[in-house]
Write a structure and sequence with these properties.
Blueprint: E1 30-34, E2 45-48, H1 51-58, H2 63-72, E3 81-85, E4 94-96, H3 107-111, E5 116-122, E6 125-132, H4 140-151, E7 155-160, E8 165-170, E9 183-184, E10 188-189, E11 203-205, H5 213-223, E12 229-232, H6 240-252, E13 258-263, H7 277-283, E14 289-293, H8 301-308, H9 337-345, E15 349-353, E16 359-362, H10 372-395, H11 404-424, E17 430-431, E18 445-446, E19 450-454, H12 462-466, E20 473-477
Parallel strand pairs: 1-3, 1-12, 5-10, 12-13, 13-14, 14-15
Antiparallel strand pairs: 2-3, 4-8, 4-11, 5-6, 5-9, 7-8, 15-16, 17-18, 19-20
Helix pairs in contact: 1-2, 2-8, 5-6, 10-11
């Protein structure tokens, strides 16, 4: 049937979809790094959105849970954290089976098996499991127990109700510790029933030799930029030298992070002592490491992460100082003035009781003496500006010309992000005490709290123009700061 001439001959319309903009980084994600064998060394990191989820995987006695408890106990409550795996000792090879559906988990599927079998290789040795009778099992834990018995000490099988899969773990450790995928045996095949076949979506992880704490941190940093804060919570004893090594890496890492560590060393309370962890971090002048003293809670620093990481930098008047904040679940310290002064001198924070029946965190500083909120806030601002300028170039349907008009687009973009920093309270009007910049001189007031400047394109060198570089964009920024102390003078006349 003739439908008539094509309208496109007269009006042609095409639709072009813009790519999705690059997202700014999340500066509210904590990584709790532990050495429990719950997370295998291939997965390495797992996201949790509640303390109940952590308890389901780790129980309520593991260091990872105890640190997460301090983190999630804060008010307002943070929404998520990551837990990562440190292989402080040599790990075992493990076969993680496929996730089973509710129908596949039905116990009737297993009790029908009376002569089950499967072949599986552990540490390079083939094992033919036969005559496995599952008719009397009452749950999936019973199924796993029967498989463990059949493995005769070579490995153990476990049903993980949280992950909803079976796993088989070698009894050995180290690089030669392995568990291969299972295949059909000589009797009734159960390898598929358990989700242990190679085509079902599971995966095998070889064991590894013990790794250093620093190696685990660098591995997780290279894996993902999803985490910003780092809290270590492990059963293994950790030396001050290991903590300092991690602090050094965090200070220099390309991906910006903040490291929190709690010291329970009595030497931190003594001004004359200079070999305690707080003193060592101060001597290293680490601006990205937050040290807290607590005599009762080895993971107290996770609590202040929980409070600071609820800040929404896209809101209005949302930035905070961590001084004066409470740490729910952490027992406050009763200190003498001398002990408090010793901690202050070492830039060591403490959750302390005052004589007006309040407890607060003080002083909210990093080991270098810089304030926690300044580091977090400027990290956000750097990433926010970087992402915005990138998106300006990335999303433009035409090129940004290498002209003053084109450069002004970059200046306007930087200014727009600085305006958000004013709205959230990071930046505020004030006197500029830095060097002269563009039209701003030392001692002049930044009425907006910031000033953005780029030199004219005509001042560029030919080499920079040929390389298609924009002139350097510079911003003078005045931080809003925060009031931590006040003096009040009262004159009385009778």
């Amino acid at each position: 049937m003739n439908t008539g001439l094509n309208v496109s001959d007269i009006v042609a319309v095409s639709v072009s979809l813009s790519p999705a903009a690059a997202q700014t980084r999340n500066f509210g994600n904590l990584l709790i790094l532990g050495d429990s064998a719950v997370i295998d060394t291939q997965t390495r990191i797992r996201l949790y959105t509640s303390l109940a989820g952590v308890a389901g995987d780790f129980g309520t006695a593991a260091p990872e849970y105890l640190a997460a408890k301090d983190f999630f106990a804060q008010s307002p409550q943070p929404t998520q954290c990551y837990i990562g795996r440190w292989a402080s000792g040599a790990s075992s090879g493990v076969l993680q089976g496929a996730v089973l559906t509710a129908a596949e988990q039905a116990i009737a599927n297993f009790t029908a098996v009376t002569t089950g079998s499967m072949d599986i290789t552990v540490d390079g040795t083939a094992h033919n499991l036969t005559a496995i009778n599952l008719s009397a099992v009452t749950n999936l834990n019973g199924v796993a127990s029967a498989i463990t018995t059949a493995l005769a000490g070579a490995a153990t099988c476990v049903w993980n109700a949280t992950q909803q899969n079976f796993s088989v773990t070698s009894a050995t450790t180290g690089a030669t510790s392995t568990v291969g995928f299972a295949t059909a045996g000589t009797g009734t095949d159960i390898s598929g029933l358990l989700g242990l076949q190679s085509t079902q979506g599971g995966y095998a992880v070889a064991g590894i030799a013990a790794e250093t704490l620093l190696s685990a941190v660098t591995t997780l940093d290279q894996m993902t930029t999803a985490w910003y804060g780092l809290q270590i919570a492990a059963a293994s004893a950790i030396t001050d030298a290991q903590y300092v090594g991690v602090a050094g890496y965090i200070e220099a890492a390309t991906n910006t992070h903040i490291f929190g560590v709690t010291t329970q060393e009595a030497g931190a309370l003594v001004a004359a002592t200079n070999t305690d962890l707080a003193s060592l971090m101060q001597q290293g002048n680490y601006s990205r490491t937050f040290v807290q003293y607590s005599s009762t809670d080895p993971y107290a620093s996770a609590s202040i992460f929980g409070r600071a990481f609820t800040v929404d930098f896209t809101g209005q008047n949302t930035t905070i100082t961590v001084k004066f904040k409470q740490e729910p679940g952490v027992t406050p310290e009763y200190l003498t003035e001398t002990q408090a002064a010793a901690l202050n001198a070492k830039n060591c924070n403490v959750y302390v009781e005052y004589n007006n029946s309040t407890a607060i965190l003080q002083q909210g500083t990093m080991a270098s003496g810089q304030f926690f909120d300044v580091i977090q806030g400027t990290d956000w601002l750097q990433n926010d500006i970087q992402t915005a300028v990138y998106n300006l170039l990335f999303l433009s349907p035409t090129k940004i010309p290498q002209t003053d008009a084109g450069v002004n687009q970059i200046v306007a973009t930087v200014s727009q992000q600085c305006q958000q920093a004013v709205r959230n309270g990071l930046i505020a009007p004030g006197v500029w005490n830095g060097p002269n910049l563009g039209a701003i001189s030392t001692g002049q007031t930044l009425t907006q709290g910031y000033y953005v400047y780029a030199a004219p394109v005509a001042t560029q060198t030919q080499a920079d123009r040929s390389a298609r570089k924009a002139p350097v964009t510079q911003a003078a920024i005045k931080l809003a700061g925060a009031i931590h102390t006040a003096d009040v003078l009262i004159s009385v006349n009778q």
